[in-house]
């Protein structure tokens, strides 16, 4: 039994991402301890106005988010592609919560910081309005590069899979049912 954190990165209260995250949580709950975070429910100041030059006091929702990341052994990120990558509020959570001393630590004399979230795995579930093939191979797959390379791997979290659903804009009930079934299969796979 693993500790699984499901993050719905879509800030809208009702969305396909929310349905997919709920489906994953429901199915994974049969075999694992699962918690879910819906980015849209979090209250915090998005901007990191001073960068890392000044320590910003974290709002309670961000402290809770950090606690859930530390609790988790496996992190499932469900996110839409907005303007090529993740929604601004989701990026704001990363900017504000994945801080030095929490996600990574700079060490004197080393150019690469220590990764403080090692030992965790992740999987990405991505929705988009363009065909996945087009987005991944023609447009450059920016969301994967951002999430996997620039955030997760930088912090020590190893991504084990990525699943893309699209185009959402032209989808019908049959598409959505198939995508929900696929997420149920993903949630049922031992982590």
Automatic annotation (TrEMBL):
Q: What is this protein called?
A: NAD(P)H dehydrogenase (Quinone)
> What are the UniProt keywords, alphabetically?
Oxidoreductase
One Pfam family of this protein, by short name? Flavodoxin_2
Query: Could you name the domain of life of the organism this protein comes from?
Result: Bacteria
According to its UniProt entry, this protein's organism is: Vibrio algivorus
Q: Which family does it belong to?
A: Belongs to the NAD(P)H dehydrogenase (quinone) family.
Q: Could you tell me which Gene3D superfamilies the record lists for this protein? A: 3.40.50.360
The transmembrane segments are none
**InterPro entries per the UniProt record, alphabetical:** Flavodoxin_fold, Flavoprotein-like_sf, NAD(P)H_dehydrogenase_qn
Question: Where does the record place the Flavodoxin-like fold domain?
Answer: 2-185
């Amino acid at each position: 039994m693993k500790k699984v954190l499901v993050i719905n990165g879509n800030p809208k209260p009702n969305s396909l991402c929310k349905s997919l995250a709920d489906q994953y949580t429901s199915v994974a709950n049969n075999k694992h301890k699962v918690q879910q975070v819906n980015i849209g429910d979090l209250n915090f100041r998005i901007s990191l106005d001073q960068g890392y030059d000044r320590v910003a006091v974290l709002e309670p929702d961000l402290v809770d988010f950090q606690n859930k990341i530390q609790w988790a052994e496996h992190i499932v990120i469900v996110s839409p592609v907005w303007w090529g990558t993740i929604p601004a509020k989701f990026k704001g959570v990363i900017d504000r919560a994945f801080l030095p001393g929490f996600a990574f630590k700079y060490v004197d004399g080393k150019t690469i910081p220590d990764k403080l979230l090692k030992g965790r795995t992740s999987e990405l579930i991505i929705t988009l309005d363009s065909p996945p093939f087009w987005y991944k191979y023609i447009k450059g797959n920016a969301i994967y590069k951002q999430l996997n390379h620039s955030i997760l791997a930088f912090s020590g979290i190893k991504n084990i899979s990525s699943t893309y659903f699209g185009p959402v804009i032209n989808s019908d009930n049959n598409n959505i049912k198939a995508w929900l079934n696929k997420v149920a299969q993903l949630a049922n796979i031992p982590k």
